[in-house]
Structures are given as C-alpha cells and as structure tokens.
C-alpha cells in the first residue's frame, strides 16, 4: 500500500510539470469552429488537433458556446480545454461517429496510443445519449446497421461513449462535466498514469451509462469527483487476461447510481490489485455501494477500502467469486483475497432507493426480502483474508417468510444454488437466509466491531456463515426489535479462530 | 399451380405464427420512465389486434402510461425488469368504464399479460394528485381506478406479473368467462386504500399461486360460478 502512495505522489508531480511544458493555447475559433449549436465541427476540431500535435503540442481552447461534434481523435501533447460555458455536444446522429476498428467501439473523443493528453476546464461534454441510442435503433430496424437489437436496443458497440482512450500514457481529466452518453461515459483502457480530478458526471440518459470505466490501467488517481449515473459509478474492469488493473487511488468521491457504487468487474479476466479507496459517499443507489467481483479467472488482491458512507442504498458490500469463462480460462481459478474494508456507515431502505431517477435499475430476482451484504465464493475457489472492521449497517428488517423463505437448516443452507456461471449481483441468489450478512465458501474472514441493526423484526437471523475456515467474529453488535432470545448467528460447517 | 398456391398458403400460415411478436420500440414506445407512452402503447395494441393478433413485448425499462385498452388477440409480455408505470395524474385515466383502470378491456377475448415484470400503480402519487384537484374543484369525485378492469371478456390470462402500489383494487373482473390468474404478486403494503382482486359474475375462474399483501380486502368473490383457488395466500399466510 505504501508503495502505491509513493508512486501516485511521483506521478502527480510529473503531471504538473508536464502541463507546464506544453501550455501554448490555440483558440478553436481560429480554426473556424462554430459555437452556434448547429455546425458540425468534427473535421475542423480534428484539423486543429492534428496541427497542434505536429507543432509541439498545446491546448485547444473552446470558448463558451455549443460545438456540435462527431468522432475526433486526440493526439499526443494536446489538451482540449473547455472554458466555462463551452459544450461539446453530440450531433445525436450515430452516423457522425466512428467505430474504431482497433477498439471496436464508438466514441466522441478517441485517443489511441497517444501520450500526454487531457481534457480540462469547466466546460461540458454532452453525448445526447437518448437521442443517439434511439437513432441507432431506428437505423438497425431499417436494416442498414447490423444489430440484433436484443433487449429492444442497439448493442453497445453501436452506441458511442463520450471518451475512449486506449493504450495512452499520462492522461489528465480535470474540472469538466460529462453528460449523457449513449453507452458508457468515459473509458480509459490499458492506459498508464491517469489523473482524474474534480469532474462532475451526470449520465442517466440510456442503458449502460457508467460514470467512469478504468480498464486494465496502471497508475490511476480519481479524486474530488461527483457522479450521478444510471449504471455503475466508478467501475474497474479487466478485459484482457494478460493485463491487470493496478495501483489505483480513489479519494473524496461521491455519487449515486441505478446500479453499483464502486464496482470491480463485471469483466475481470486479468484482475485488480493494489487499490486504496478512501472517503467515498454513496447514496440513492439501487444495487451495492461496494462490490468486488472476480468471476472470469482473474486475481483480485490487496484492496483497501477505508471510509464509506452509504445512504439509501439497496446493498452495502457484495464480494463474489464466479466462473463465467471456464472455456476461455482453461479452468484458471478466479481469486479474491486480501481485502480490508473499514469505517463504513450504511443505511439500507425498504423502498426502491433509485426511485424517480431516469433509467432506474430493473426490478429482478423476485421474490426476495431485503438482501443482506454477502461474501460468496465457490466450493473450490474461496474468498480469502477479508477483514471487515468498524462497520455499522442499518437494515429495514421486515423479512416475511410467506413472501419468500430460506431456512437455516443444514439442508436448506446447502441447497442454495452456487450459480458459478451467472451474472454476479447481490440479488442473484434471490432470497438469502440472513438479514445482515451472508458468508459462504470463504476462509479467514474477520468481523471486528461490526454493528448490524434491523429496524423491524425479520424472520431470518442476522448472520449466516456456511462453509468457512478460520472465521473470526469479535465485538459484534446485533439489534432487532422483539428478538431477545433469537439466535442471530448461524454457522454451518465453520471453524473459528480463537478470539 | 395448385401446389404453388398451397405453398403460398402455408407460407402465410407460417408467417402469421412467427411474425406476431412485436417489440415495444417498434411503435416508438420509450423505456426511460419519463415519456408518457399512452398513445404509442394504444396504437401498438390496436395495430396488433387488427393484424391477426400477437404479443407486444416490453424488455427491461420503465414504461410510463395512462389508461390503455386491451383488444382481442393481443397479449402483453413484460420481461424481467420491465415495468408498466401508471401515470400519477387522474387526467391520464381517461375512461368511460364503470370501473376505471390503468388497463381496461370490455367485450374482448384472448387477452392477457404475462412475464416476470411489474405493473406499478404509483398509488400514493395518484391519490395525492387526485385529492389536490378535488379540493381545488377542478375535477369531480369519480370511480376509484383499479390497475386492471375487465368487463365481459373471454379467455383472460394474467400470469407471473407483479401488481404493485395500486391505489385501490388491483384486478376487477366483471362478467368474464374462462379466466386464469396464476403466480401473481399483488403488493399494496404502502398504500392505505390498496385492495386485491374483485370477481363479480364471472364463470370458470382459476386462481393459483397468488400472494396478496394489501390493506383492504384481498379477494371479493361475488355471484361467480366455478371459481377454484389453489395455493394462494395473504402476507400473513392465510389462504384466500
């Protein structure tokens, strides 16, 4: 962990130095770009970028106004600087966007194998996602765009993101507002040294509107940023089994989502290591505040999450090992180990937490009562070395056995499906037998000063642990109305460490 | 020549079987939860009914609507995660029926809604907005809208659907014949005036695997013939 900190500090200094080096400014109007909200500026902006990169680099500066855009490629030593009131707005026509043959996706701003690039300022990028996505669906229906239209939508590679940088070094994204793409919002894929500071994300325009996606990057800082997203807020992915997403710091970020808050996965082929996530606030979020998933034969290790406030969020912690890609991975094990989660305060509501937001999360996996936090491995691939300390979670309780029931007998616990190939979500098992925490196939798990409160009586116990070695439960506090003699901890096939 | 005609005939039969499923977006129905889709959904139902019937399919998303009328031969499938959301203004419940509802049908046959999706009544918002308009004198007291109201229909089937937050009754069936209600989850626990199923003057009704959690009466069974109830309970585990 210390090593990560040093690396990041060096990197920050480096970024400031490099910004100073190529500070020459070029107003985009000088190249003929129009801020009238009607002129398609794609070719002009591309011409400006090409000129600046060929002439020693600098900033391409956008004064206030609306610049209609299709796809452009950012080049080495060029920063797009969006002044307050400047907006890069998608034309809304999918045909103005390129599907990059190397990346395989569409984007408004691409960068491929470029160094020292950035997007800065107080301006905005608006992907006009709803319009663009429906436009592409219409094209697919007319037949000149190839798309199976599954789920009654155009598929992801036919819907542009706002930013897609691939294999770039030294990326700076600061200050800007990123709004409404037709797909994910901003993707940094196999980049080195990515610095994201003080950005605002508002994307609830269509399916898959993630806040930020970091894919197989090395050296990432995300801080002081705010996210309001229909899909996952801050999402780390690993697309390539030979790569890994590593050395990442997230601090002072807050946001809400109709999916998850901080998410590792779903695609987790290489893995994730050396993460330090501190001081995050998650609210009005449909799924989990924190979810770490190793479901594709990757390795997830050395993760510190310290300081989480989670209000009105459907689930708090969900750790999961799965086995979705067995044929691809030659049976390579998914690994999830060495995780510390501490200083968490969370409130889980009875009602739908993202109610009223555009593109609410889908109601699914019914019937089930309020789901507990969960750490769920597989019988042979076990989650290892997880410490949960100083954690308080307030649940609504109220689980009704007539609506959905999962008992705690040995037979009932062992009949809960393993679901190794399923898409991982906290709700995937439908009804679980605990209202507070459910642990299965996990070794050396430590609960230290964990407080679980149910506001109303629940038919389930607070904690169920099934198949665990070296479990440690210390300083546990459990409160539930009218549950004086109720057995709140059910252990099946568990060995405990001495306290 | 005869063979050719037979082939063409077979082709049409084949088409009519395979071409009767329509995605909601084909009719411009939007999944954003904000667009009021009443006109588009009604057009879809009318179109499908006029073209030999079929199924209107809603994939995951929230589909806001006011009153829609089911027509003969049209089924609606709500895939898991699809929610038909009732509008929260009483003006959107534009109906001349004795029992107003979000989903209505009168004298139609072979109709139904099935799948794992939700019909969301927006009950509390609708009740509040109605009371506000009543107190301003802008509207008169009218019948209490149900989620579904069917009169004089035949071959009716609702299976698997969640009926949530209906302001009053969930399903009202008057004078319907051959009705199958199976695997429904009716939940109005957050609505003080929520009620369940009303059957009046119906014949051959099958109720199976229902879960009803409402504040008022879960089942009213009046003047019906041949009603069977299997494995159906309230939230307290009491049989219907």
What secondary-structure arrangement, pairings included, does this model have?
The complex is a heterodimer of chains A (499) and B (240).
Chain A lengths: L1 H20 L3 E3 L8 E5 L1 H13 L3 E5 L2 E5 L2 E2 L4 E5 L3 E5 L7 E2 L6 E7 L2 E7 L2 E3 L2 H14 L18 E6 L2 E6 L2 E3 L6 E4 L2 E6 L2 E4 L8 E4 L2 E6 L2 E4 L4 E5 L6 E13 L4 E7 L2 E24 L4 E23 L4 H4 L5 E13 L25 E4 L6 E15 L12 H5 L22 E4 L1 E15 L6 E12 L2 E3 L9 E8 L3
Parallel strand pairs in A: 1-3, 2-4, 3-6, 4-7, 5-9, 6-10, 7-11, 9-12, 10-13, 11-14, 12-15, 13-16, 14-17, 15-18, 16-19, 17-20, 18-21, 19-22, 20-22, 21-23, 22-24, 23-24, 24-25, 25-26, 25-27, 26-28, 27-29, 28-30, 29-31, 30-31, 30-32, 31-33
Antiparallel strand pairs in A: 8-9
Chain B lengths: L1 H17 L2 E3 L8 E5 L1 H13 L3 E5 L2 E5 L2 E2 L4 E5 L3 E5 L14 E6 L2 E7 L2 E3 L2 H14 L9 E6 L2 E6 L2 E3 L6 E4 L2 E6 L2 E3 L9 E4 L2 E6 L2 E3 L5 E4 L2 E6 L2 E2 L6
Parallel strand pairs in B: 1-3, 2-4, 3-6, 4-7, 5-8, 6-9, 7-10, 8-11, 9-12, 10-13, 11-14, 12-15, 13-16, 14-17, 15-18, 16-19, 17-20, 18-21, 19-22
Overview in brief:
The complex is a heterodimer of chains A (499) and B (240). Chain A is mainly beta and 499 residues long.
């Amino acid at each position: 962990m210390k090593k990560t900190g040093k690396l990041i500090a060096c990197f920050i200094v480096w970024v400031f130095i490099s910004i100073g080096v190529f500070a020459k400014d070029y107003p985009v109007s000088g190249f003929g770009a129009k801020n009238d909200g009607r002129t398609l500026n794609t070719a002009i902006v591309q011409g400006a970028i090409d000129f600046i990169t060929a002439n020693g680099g600098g900033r391409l500066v956008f004064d206030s106004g609306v610049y209609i855009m299709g796809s452009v490629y950012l080049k080495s030593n060029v920063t797009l600087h969006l002044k307050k009131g400047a907006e890069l707005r998608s034309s809304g026509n999918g045909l103005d966007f390129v599907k990059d043959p190397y990346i395989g996706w569409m984007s408004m701003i691409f960068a491929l194998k470029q160094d020292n690039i950035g997007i800065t300022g107080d301006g905005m990028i608006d992907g006009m996602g709803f319009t663009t996505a429906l436009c592409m669906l219409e094209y697919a229906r007319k037949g000149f765009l190839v798309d199976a239209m599954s789920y009654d939508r155009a598929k992801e590679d036919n819907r542009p993101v706002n930013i897609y940088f691939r294999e770039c070094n030294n990326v700076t994204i600061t200050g800007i507002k990123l709004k409404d793409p037709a797909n994910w919002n901003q993707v940094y894929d196999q980049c080195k040294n990515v610095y994201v500071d003080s950005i605002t994300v508002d994307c609830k325009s269509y399916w898959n509107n993630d806040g930020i996606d970091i894919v197989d990057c090395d050296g990432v800082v995300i801080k002081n940023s705010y996210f309001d997203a229909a899909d996952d807020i801050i999402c780390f992915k690993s697309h390539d089994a030979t790569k890994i997403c590593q050395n990442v710091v997230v601090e002072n970020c807050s946001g809400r989502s109709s999916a998850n808050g901080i998410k590792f996965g779903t695609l987790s082929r290489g893995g994730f290591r050396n993460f330090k996530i501190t001081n995050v606030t998650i609210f009005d979020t449909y799924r989990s505040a924190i979810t770490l998933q190793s479901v594709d034969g990757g390795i997830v290790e050395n993760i510190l999450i310290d300081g989480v406030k989670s209000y009105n969020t459907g689930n708090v912690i969900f750790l999961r090992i799965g086995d979705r890609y067995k044929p691809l991975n030659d049976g390579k094990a998914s690994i999830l180990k060495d995780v510390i989660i501490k200083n968490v305060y969370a409130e889980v509501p009875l009602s739908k937490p993202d109610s009223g937001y555009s593109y609410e999360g889908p109601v699914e996996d019914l019937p089930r009562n309020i789901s507990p936090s969960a750490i769920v491995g597989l019988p042979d691939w076990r989650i290892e070395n997880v410490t949960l300390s100083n954690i308080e979670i307030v649940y609504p309780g109220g689980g009704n056995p007539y609506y959905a029931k999962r008992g705690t007998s040995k037979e009932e616990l062992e009949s809960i499906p393993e679901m190794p190939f399923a898409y991982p979500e906290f709700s995937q098992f439908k009804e679980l037998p605990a209202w507070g925490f459910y642990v299965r196939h996990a070794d050396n798990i430590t609960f230290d000063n964990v407080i679980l409160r149910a506001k109303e009586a629940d038919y389930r116990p607070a904690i169920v642990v099934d198949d665990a070695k070296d479990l440690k439960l210390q300083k546990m506090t459990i409160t539930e109305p009218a549950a004086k003699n109720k057995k709140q901890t059910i252990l099946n096939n568990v060995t405990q460490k001495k306290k | 020549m005869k063979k050719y005609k037979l082939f063409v005939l077979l082709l049409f039969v084949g088409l009519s079987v395979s071409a009767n499923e329509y995605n909601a977006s084909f009719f411009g129905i939007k999944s954003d939860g904000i667009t009021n889709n009443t006109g588009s959904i009604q057009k879809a139902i009318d179109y499908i009914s006029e073209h030999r019937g079929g199924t209107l399919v809603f994939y995951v998303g929230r589909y806001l609507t006011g009153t829609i009328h089911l027509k003969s031969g049209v089924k609606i499938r709500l895939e898991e995660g699809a929610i038909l959301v009732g509008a929260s203004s009483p003006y959107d419940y534009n109906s001349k029926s004795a029992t107003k509802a979000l989903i209505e049908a009168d004298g139609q046959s072979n109709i139904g809604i099935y799948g794992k999706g939700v019909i969301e009544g927006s009950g509390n918002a609708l009740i509040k907005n109605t009371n506000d308009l009543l107190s301003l004198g802008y509207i008169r007291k009218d019948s209490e809208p149900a989620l579904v109201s069917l009169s004089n229909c035949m071959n009716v089937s609702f299976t698997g659907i969640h009926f949530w937050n209906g302001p009053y009754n969930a399903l009202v069936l008057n004078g319907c014949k051959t009705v199958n209600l199976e695997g429904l989850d009716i939940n109005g626990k957050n609505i003080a005036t929520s009620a369940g199923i009303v059957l009046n003057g119906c014949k051959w009704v099958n109720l199976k695997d229902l879960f009803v959690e409402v504040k008022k009466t879960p089942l009213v069974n009046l003047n019906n013939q041949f009603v069977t109830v299997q494995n159906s309970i309230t939230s307290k585990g009491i049989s219907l």
